[in-house]
Fold Protein unzipped.
Amino acid sequence: MKKNMSGEGGWWVVLLTATLAATSNAEGGAGLLTAAPLHQVITSSTLRWIQLQPDTTLEYVVTGAESEKGPVYLCRGRQQGDWLLGQLRPKYTECLISPETRSSNFEVLENIHNASLIHWKHWNKFAPRSKGAVTVDSSNSNVFIGRTNAIQDKLSHYIGRISYETSIGHMQVLDDENNELTKDSGEILVEIEPISYKLEKVKIEDGTERVTHDEPISFGERILQNNEDDDATVNTAVEYAYNYTLKWGHKHGIATGLNTTVEMIDGTIFPQMKWGDSFREERKDLFMLKQYLKPGTACNVTVRGNYTHRDVNYTGKLVTFYKDKTERSRPITGERVETIMQMEAIYGDVYFIANNSLVPTTTTTTTTTTTTTTTSTTILSTLLLPTPKVPTNIDIANPMKKPEDIEDIDSNDMKPPPVKENISMSTKGELEGRKPNAAGTSGIEMLSLLFPIFALLISV
Ligand SMILES: *[C@@H]1O[C@H](CO)[C@@H](O)[C@H](O)[C@H]1NC(C)=O
Ligand SMILES: *[C@@H]1O[C@H](CO)[C@@H](O)[C@H](O)[C@H]1NC(C)=O
Ligand SMILES: *[C@@H]1O[C@H](CO)[C@@H](O)[C@H](O)[C@H]1NC(C)=O
Ligand SMILES: *[C@@H]1O[C@H](CO)[C@@H](O)[C@H](O)[C@H]1NC(C)=O
Ligand SMILES: *[C@@H]1O[C@H](CO)[C@@H](O)[C@H](O)[C@H]1NC(C)=O
Ligand SMILES: *[C@@H]1O[C@H](CO)[C@@H](O)[C@H](O)[C@H]1NC(C)=O
Ligand SMILES: *[C@@H]1O[C@H](CO)[C@@H](O)[C@H](O)[C@H]1NC(C)=O
Ligand SMILES: *[C@@H]1O[C@H](CO)[C@@H](O)[C@H](O)[C@H]1NC(C)=O
């Protein structure tokens, strides 16, 4: 009869793993029964047992019945080490467990942010244990929360426990006179599993960015040199790789591990990820180096980068999808952490290739004045690319697009750069002298690839 229930493990299995990894019960997550035949208890991400505090939002506390005087909340109290189901009636300060037992140190069942889709499912004593049934005590997979319709109208329902010792269930409820009744049928509380999420209309909150840097990593040194007879702007590109990560946070009320898509308020869609995990990918990019050089001069450039973590707060709407194709949405706030690589080039003094001596900072000749660059710093951060391709082509496509990023030598250059620039690329042999890591090797390969592109652009 329940054949279709077995083997649909998705969410539960993921949650189970997360639960085992994180010694869950510290946070009081309510236990939920997994599908047959295993019938394990996993921790709900959206239901939890909490002590009633003055600031508890009572609208989110799960109600078992209505009464003339207001809602009757579900609660549980400890007796000899075991959690027993009870009910918190209007104006009561104790959890009523049985005719004789009340607990003043009790917990109520909270539906965190109203995020859980719970359902009172029809039950009779011959029905097998329901997948998703909420347990009273996470360490006991045989006792659940039940209720049955009331006879008088003081209470809408009689709340009680459903326990299984065999395959036949046993329901025991308390009526409005606190009499214990045994029932053969009624309802059992189950949580409906979400299958995926969509975080939409995401808006980054201005002024919430916090940036931290790791220690700089060296991507090696390059020598830019002009072996030609004319002044030239020497370009080269350094290829670098890094691990990009993006995490949208992990919050109560959202099941870790479910497929989640994210759409910004401007319509940008990010690659699908699993909630609570970082989206991670290795990215390769090109970092452009550019130096205006007189004939016979060269400049050493050190390239390094920082892993840079950018935290921002965001607001958005979380849409939760369920298997029966229904969906529910609610506003959420969260913190997004993005890790990128921030690159930096440190340009050394310009020197004569012939004798390695520095080009004087103020040399007046009839034709030119050459200014050595004082160690100028160029920061070129990578862009946040929603649908990244590896390698990204941004720098290749627009090598000249960020001239303002490159502090050129024109600050006290008296002669404007020649209209037609002659490009001198660093040759392979010269670069090989400085090749501290693998990034350097691939950098060289990129050079030959880039050369025609530059030539093309400059001749336009
Ligand atoms: C909780 O969610 C349900 C279903 O979306 C809705 O009917 C109910 O009004 C919500 N309750 C509160 C207190 O927001
Ligand atoms: C970002 O959100 C967190 C958690 O909600 C909050 O504590 C923090 O103050 C927020 N930061 C800013 C700059 O608003
Ligand atoms: C580029 O340099 C070559 C020699 O290195 C020279 O023959 C040619 O005229 C130069 N072209 C321009 C546009 O300056
Ligand atoms: C990215 O991370 C993976 C796994 O941690 C690692 O093997 C790889 O070397 C990293 N790549 C870079 C460029 O750091
Ligand atoms: C989650 O995403 C993966 C990869 O796109 C897909 O294979 C899987 O079916 C998805 N799971 C659900 C429950 O949609
Ligand atoms: C540039 O690099 C070369 C090769 O490593 C080195 O011999 C030279 O001293 C450097 N020059 C300057 C000005 O840093
Ligand atoms: C790395 O971060 C530090 C600040 O912590 C900064 O001083 C340094 O310039 C950064 N280096 C790079 C290569 O971005
Ligand atoms: C180095 O060589 C350049 C040209 O080749 C020359 O102008 C300069 O005077 C030389 N400097 C020294 C210190 O020899």
Residues 296, 352, 354-355, 357 surround 2-acetamido-2-deoxy-beta-D-glucopyranose (ligand 8) (CB under 6 Å). Helices lie at 10-21, 394-397, 428-432, 438-459.
